[in-house]
Amino acid sequence: MTDFSNHKFGTRAIHSGAEPDPTTGAIMTPIFQTSTYVQEYPGKHKGYAYARGKNPTREALQKNIASLENAKHCLCFSSGMGSMDAVMKLLRPGDEVITGDDLYGGSYRMFTKIFANFGIRFHFINMHDANNISKYVNVNTKLIWVETPTNPTMQIIDIEACAKIAKDNNIMLGVDNTFAPPFLQNPLALGAHIVMHSVTKYLGGHSDVVMGALVVNDDAIYEQLAFIHNSCGATPGPMDSFLVMRGIKTLHLRMERHCYNGRKIAEFLKTHPKVEKIYWPGFEDHPNHEIAKKQMRDFGGMIAIVLKHCTVEDTFNIASSFKVFSLAESLGGVESLVNHPATMTHASIPKAERDKSGVVDNLLRLSVGVEDIEDLIEDLRQVLG
């Protein structure tokens, strides 16, 4: 297989993991739609025995994503939550996890409703100042779990500072990199041990696949995760793997447009009289903007706004009145989406906790797509006035 590790990002996005099919010369990786593989005699096969463990289409995708993160290993899962579930299964009863107080609602739900029941303790803290993490480290701490930028208030967490704390205390550092795919941010290069992606979002990019991925360099961590991956079976099928490989071929092009459109919309909304507060890390007055500049190559297409003097009903009406933006969960697709976190992506978090972290009832989250920017701004103008 050709080594593209020394090539630029766009070239790796298109070519890494992909080889012409040896039987036909097909330039696209075939969809190996099979559940099992014929063996010459028991135990002797061509590296494939049963498709839950290995599938050539999935393997090509895993090599591709690993290349984008400059990593040795990648494992793809049937969803982002499936990949997080595998990370949590590295832990044991009595272990403790330090994580943020502004998490995706599904992550919070998994931590508090599933793994807390197995004796794992979670500390949900403000990670804006990484030094705050050290106050919660003890002999039972086994994992620091970070989202950056966070969902939905776009908090920026210093990955390098977290990595130093993790290294000094022999703790794993995991980073949910969904909001800042590898075109924008590479946490492994900053010292993280595990990078998680909801591949459903920017990597897939077309709102037609649900998938997750874990990317690592450490061989021992990889072996543990690979065992869980095969044993617990949250593995994606070959058709989904093919669709994501196809999506990744335009990741660099899409991200350039997401970032461009995101900036234009953030600038439009920053001074809008109907907007009380805006969250977008590209503004100089955004908390930890300088850290964002240091660890990200651009600021992405995710924006959150708090609407001024709006009741819940007012907010619902605004969210339902867009013509180009679609009211839906998820993010990172080519189409622009508007989301009401309090009742959608973060509904599983108690209201008091939501309010404390800034996920108030009059907050909307925008996933800015790649449509013509004039149409997106006009859509915001016709809704907000």
Structure, explained:
The structure is a single chain. With 385 residues, the chain is α/β, with parallel strands linked by helices. It has two domains: 9-248, Type I PLP-dependent aspartate aminotransferase-like (Major domain) (Aspartate Aminotransferase, domain 2), CATH 3.40.640.10; 251-384, Alpha-Beta Complex (Aspartate Aminotransferase, domain 1). It is built from 13 helices and twelve strands. The strands form two sheets. The chain has a seven-stranded mixed β-sheet, with helices on both faces. The protein has a five-stranded mixed β-sheet with strand order 8-9-12-11-10, with helices on one face. The N and C termini lie far apart (55 Å). The mean pLDDT is 96.
In summary, what is this structure?
By secondary structure, the protein is α/β, with parallel strands linked by helices. The chain is 34% helix and 15% strand.
